[in-house]
Amino acid sequence: MNQAATPIDRIGWYARRATRMSPAELGWRAYDQALHAAWSRRQVRPEELAAISSRPGRRRGFFATLPPDTAERVTGSARTAVLTAADLLMKGEWEVLGVLRTDLAAPDWFHDPVTGRRSASDRYAFSINHRSEAQTGNVKQVWEISRLQHLTLLATAWFLTRDEVYADRVADQLRSWWRENPFLSGIHWTNGIELGVRLISLAWIRRLLDDWPGVAGLFEENELAVQQIRWHQQYLAAFRSRGSSANNHVIAEAAGQLVASCAFPWFPESERWRRGATRLLERELLRNTFSSGVDRELASDYQRFVAELGLLAAVEADVAGRPLGPAVWSRLAAMTDSAAALADQRLRPPRQGDGDDGRALLLDPPVPDSWASLLSLGAAVVGRRDWWPAVAADATGTIVGRLAGATRVVPGRPRSRPARFEDAGITLLRTDDRLAPEIWCRCDGGPHGYLSIAAHAHADALSVEVRYGGVDVLADPGTYCYHGEPAWRSYFRSTIAHNTVELDGQDQSGDGGPFLWLRHATSRELGVADTGAAARWSAEHDGYQVLDPPARHRRSVRLDRAARTIEIVDSIDTGPHDIRVAFHFGPEVAAQLSGATAALDWTGAATPGAARLELPPQLRWSLHRGETEPILGWYSPGLGRRTPAWTLVGRGRSAPGAPVTTRLVFLDRN
């Protein structure tokens, strides 16, 4: 929803949102609203915390500890990376969603550095509209540091060095958060996903600090800490994402509840909470992922997030002696195997759909645009296959693997690297290791997204993404923002912002707001063939059936491995229609246009290269970079960041039986 929207706009958005809900979901939402009102009596004010803090602590156990030699198993390079990041954190420096924060030595938990706004800390949580930038600032910025993942990294630094300064800083900031965020007061009690991730952080901070002399006084003998852990779980037991919102949010809620109820079994409700979280996670993890392991949201960042959540929860349940079922373990293995297969030679994932850099647990400094940490974790928990790319063990994989013990044996895993994920509509055309640098091409012929609102989908049907040695050549521009900049949010999700075809100025799917699609294009793969020398893919979608006359877009892509060329052929079955074909280049690619040919060069990239793009002459071609009226020519390396990049746009009129052909020829340096 537009953060600067008028009351009428907001009513319209909620009305559109309601059309995507089932009657059962509407009933649940009404029940939640009634519960929100009833729970206002349960809000805890800051002045009430003194009575809780003054209660004498009592002995409680923490038993899910790490083997004594775990720290010594962390490699030197991983240790160095952790300590370098931890020392910057001790100075207050940490990059948060594209913003370099310098205030994290003693953070203000309610301050948004992007807008300068500070949300109210004493207001009843369910009276806060977290979608309103006027009330909260950029809410992702505010929420992110309260996931407390910078503290899990500092706790890891203490675990590796036993240097008191790290543990003292963790303890100071935890006490600060617990004091300043009493139950149901402020923005940090408005969204269950945040509570779920925060519980995972708390469990791991406690585990990593187990040998620190002050840990019992910080956690189990600290009545305010104990109460906070209970409040979090009471909240998650009462409120969860349902219906059209039961995407990665519900996985985080269930995983956080399961981890906490296993790690902190201190309450009369703990066993009931564990059983409920187990049922919820087992059901929703299977619903949220295809059997191939690809996440149904078709948003690559969320595949990593959901896989990490599932693996961490499964390990915690195993350690507690309450293992998850074999179907869940099979799906977790499939998620890691599909990630290993989808990654390019530099372990970069596809850039499909939304991405917000979310992680389930940070014991290492985050490495943007990489699945290395996910594959390290997967290798430690379920084991790697022979065809997986080589991945160095990081601190997370090593430490979680030591908690898990032996890797889980999961039958039925692929014996060779798959190139097609038919249920998700993803096909990879790529060269093999003998023809380096790798040409990697992702073809999109799958569903629009997950559930009725497809919240994290983009209008990208039949788009392609091409890399050369891991360098973006034909690039998916990314996401850039979720809140506060509606024009930018709309652009990065639009059809013209992807390497595909736009007709009559319309998106393929109907956009109803920042996280709401009212109409979904349906794609269908028509054929996939691989002869060894060449690989070919073709598909079509029906997103333009709403036009007059109704139209269907078909696309075929062919990779000639020996010639190192990619040919893209587009056809529209009716017409004429106004057509725009877009090709977006990565930020490292320089482009020069001469008639119907573009010369591409990425000399300064990690894998230098050049190419010639032979364009269909029946269209009028133009180059764009960093434009704002209208927005065109941008690339987002991560949430909160954008940089100018070249975009080619061809304009004209489509005609039945007149295909539009583009040929990308790689000019290898050798």
Entry summary:
With 670 residues, the chain is α+β, with helices and mostly antiparallel strands. An eight-stranded antiparallel sheet has the order 11-12-13-14-25-18-17-16, with no helix packed on it.
Characterization of this structure:
There is one protein chain. This protein has 670 residues and is α+β, with helices and mostly antiparallel strands. It has a domain of 200 residues: Beta-galactosidase, Chain A, domain 5, CATH 2.70.98.70. Helix content is 35%, strand content 19%. The chain contains 19 helices and 25 strands. The chain has an eight-stranded antiparallel sheet with strand order 11-12-13-14-25-18-17-16, with no helix packed on it. The longest helix has 20 residues. It is globular and about 80 Å long. The N and C termini lie far apart (51 Å).
Q: Could you report the average pLDDT, rounded to the nearest whole number?
A: 95
Which CATH class of the domain at 420-547 and 579-650? Mainly Beta
Helix residue percentage: 25-40%
Shape: globular
| Beta-strand segment tally | 25
Proper CATH architecture of the domain at 420-547 and 579-650: Distorted Sandwich
Strand order of the largest sheet: 11-12-13-14-25-18-17-16
- Please report the number of helical segments: 19
